[in-house]
Specification:
The chain has eleven helices and eleven strands. The protein is of the alpha/beta class. 40% of the residues are buried.
């Protein structure tokens, strides 16, 4: 499905050895002309909601957000207060990303004294959290991450931005199915669609291979929709095709690829 939405580009940052390096990273992302800096949950071992304000404080135009907060880690009403505070304090530059937590997040939830329920129960609890957020007279924009039918249905009803959390080896045909499922739920509702890239280019990444069980060259060979070429023109052509095919206009990648990602963003800027 074609969209006329302009491209937006975000960096997902998951490492903060100290506050100085975190704020330097925020400044650099803004200098590169990228739109958003997202904090993972957690950032290393740190709470992202303690770091996001620091990124906002040292930048002036950068959107700051979470990618994505695990709903089971937090009390809904306290989260609503924090999100509202960040929304007001940043002048609307905060984007609240929420999810149900990956399967391995139960261990961290236990350290916080929080329940980590079944996947279906976590989706239902997230829906309750969103209702609490909606009680506020004004809330930040809401990003939801998901690929299963229950999460896509919830996102279709409530989210401003949806990022498709498909696996690293997802093919175009598989992506078609996920996007079509979301569209069937969303109908005519206007939602910004996003994708998080696994890598840029075709160089091997042992760290990625350890984490996902598949390395970048294999993803390229399999034509996975989670990798784009490092060449800005070729990457731009691919992203334009994805926007035409799926309506995806928001693209994110981890901070290790910030420089080549910025080059791709510059190459596309004149084309909207």
């Amino acid at each position: 499905m074609t969209t006329t939405k302009p491209f937006r580009f975000g960096i997902v940052a998951g490492f903060a050895p100290d506050l100085g390096s975190w704020t330097a990273q925020a400044r650099r992302i803004e200098e590169l002309g990228l739109d958003t800096m997202f904090a993972t949950d957690p950032v290393g071992g740190l709470d992202p909601l303690t770091l996001v304000p620091a990124a906002a404080a040292v930048t002036s135009t950068l959107t700051v957000g979470t990618f994505v907060l695990a709903d089971p880690f937090r009390d809904a009403r306290n989260l609503a207060w924090q999100a509202d505070s960040l929304h007001q304090a940043t002048g609307g530059r905060f984007l609240l990303g929420l999810g149900v937590g990956h399967p391995g997040a139960g261990k961290h939830a236990a350290t916080l004294g929080r329940e980590f329920l079944s996947p279906g129960e976590r989706v239902a609890r997230l829906a309750d959290t969103i209702e609490v957020l909606s009680e506020r007279p004004e809330r930040p924009r809401l990003l939801l991450a998901g690929s299963g039918p229950k999460m896509l249905a919830l996102a279709a009803r409530t989210a401003d931005v949806v990022t498709f959390s498909w696996g690293p080896r997802t093919t175009e045909d598989q992506a078609d199915s996920i996007v079509d499922t979301f569209r069937s739920f969303a109908g005519s509702r206007d939602v910004e669609l996003a994708v998080n890239l696994t890598a840029i280019g075709d160089k091997s990444s042992p760290q990625l291979a350890r984490y996902t069980g598949v390395d970048v060259p294999q993803l390229v060979e399999e034509k996975a929709v989670t990798v784009v070429p490092e060449n800005p023109a070729a990457a731009g052509e691919m992203l334009l095709r994805w926007r035409e095919r799926w309506g995806i206009s928001c693209v994110t990648v981890n901070s290790g690829y910030a420089e080549p990602f910025a080059a791709i963003a510059r190459a596309l800027s004149a084309q909207g």
